[in-house]
Amino acid sequence: MANVVVVGSQWGDEGKGKIVDWLSEQADVVVRFQGGHNAGHTLVIGNQTYKLSLLPSGIVRGKLSVIGNGVVLDPHALVAEIGKLAEQGVTVTPKILRIAENTPLILSLHRDLDRLRESATDGTRIGTTGRGIGPAYEDKVGRRAIRLMDLADLDALRSKIGRLLSHHNALRRGNGQPEIAPETLYQELASVAPLVLPYMDNVVALLDKKRRAGNRILFEGAQGALLDIDHGTYPYVTSSNTVAGAAAIGSGLGPNAIDYVLGITKAYTTRVGEGPFPTELHDEIGRRIGERGHEFGTVTGRPRRCGWFDAALVRQTIRTSGIDGIALTKLDILDGFDTIKVCVRYRLDGEEYDHLPASQAAQERVEPIYEEIEGWKGSTAHARSWADLPAQAIKYVRRIEELIGAPVAILSTSPERDDTILVRNPFQV
After folding, report:
1. How is the chain split among helix, strand and coil, in percent rounded to 5?
2. Has residue 215 got a pLDDT over 80?
3. Does residue 275 sit in helix, strand or coil?
4. C-alpha dist (Å) from residue 189 to 38, 82, 110, 322
5. How confident is the model at residue 420 (pLDDT cuts 50, 70, 90)?
6. 301 is in an annotated binding site
7. CA atoms of 50 and 73, how far apart (whole Å)
8. I need a surface site. Which of 22, 90, 188, 360 has the fewest CB within 10 A?
9. Residue 333: its pLDDT value, please?
10. Exposed e or buried b per residue across 337-373, where buried means at least 16 C-beta atoms within 10 angstroms of its C-beta
């Protein structure tokens, strides 16, 4: 048996929900290891649709679900999400949900700062969701964060609040915002403490015990590898490491706990928010892909930018995440195109590159070099075997494998769970 890390191989929104749900049914433990409630998975189980933004996907199947220390946790958002699931018939108890005691918290002051920055008109707008993710990670790195375990000692909490506010109130004054009184922040935390503390645990010990017992562990990433704070399209990235290696850091298990990395990869490319997007389409084809693919954010509802498949970018994430195989999703959205383009390299100032340069200025100026592939007229929707696919669709899949240097382990042909072609089960390596 193996432990599996699932990451998005593009800018997120690759259709991870269906794949992680399928894998979570086979797993014993599902771990969320980075990000906050700014990303999410949509799970379709029977006639019920669940939209998760913080809770691990295994929660809807009653699997032991763990929020690791690499996540930044908005305790009020967590309580609200648990309540929403209860309305859908899913009861979340401390028996199936455990949260790392050293998980940093997102507070109202983080949301304030995030939104203040995003409303700036000086060209520094990143395109965040305004949910306080970045500022919370800043406080973690700045060693002034309030962590979940701090709610268990309210007497000692006041001094930690004072240290945090000495930083944030200075920022607020500089931006013409009123200061926050220590008692206000204390009450914000004290009121939610009894609601979230029952879920707190020593997750490192818990996961080590499960691993030694032979349990299958699924590490579930949010967003995509191209939004990684180090390896993504900086500065238009998220504030955490989204590559597969972060599963070890964000859960407390060593890297030898990872046996297989599955990269979820859309058959075309989308992006939400600001930042470079070499293959973006601003024409009727781009609109057609967006409409057919229902390309709107799970959490925010924001329309996604759409473009052709970028093999050069996915090649990069194959390297940075050590991806063993990909789950190719939404192939059916490309049905009916006469010609499909795939970016194989870039051109910049007369030179060709097989990767996206790290420079922000260069990323904004590169021109994609396309390879044209003949499309197909038949339908790939709901296909459950290779024999159900048009021959030209199979050629497209095989060409993608060649260009990115990784095999297709799973092929998804609709949001429905059973509309899947399994080549290799990541848990059985």
Report:
1. 35, 20, 40
2. yes
3. coil
4. 21, 18, 14, 39
5. very high
6. yes
7. 20
8. 360
9. 96
10. beebbbbbbbeeeeeeeeebeeeeeebeebebbbeeb
- Strands (E) in 169-268, as ranges, are 200-201, 217-220, 260-266
Model confidence band, residue 121 (pLDDT cutoffs 50, 70, 90): low
Could you give all domains of the chain from N- to C-terminal order, each with its CATH number? 4-102+210-257 (3.40.440.10), 108-196 (1.10.300.10), 265-422 (3.90.170.10)
- 235: preceding bond cis by omega (within 30 degrees): yes
Answer whether 196's CB lies under 8 Å from 141's CB.
Answer: no
Query: 414: annotated binding-site residue?
Result: yes
Residues forming the active site: 13, 41, 140
- Residue indicated by tokens 């998980």: 103
Does the global pTM surpass 0.90?
yes
Query: Is residue 251 marked as binding?
Result: no
Does the annotation list 331 as a binding residue? yes
Per-residue pLDDT, 125 = 67
Residue 121, sorted as left (phi over 0), alpha (psi -120 to 50) or beta, turns out to be alpha
Q: Which residue has the higher pLDDT, 120 or 377?
A: 377
b/e 258-284 (16+ beta carbons within 10 angstroms → b):
bbbbbbbbbbbbbbbbebbbbbbbeee
What is the distance between the alpha carbons of residues 193 and 41, in angstroms, rounded to a whole number?
26
Dist CA 86 CA 306 (whole Å): 35
d(CA 410, CA 331): 12
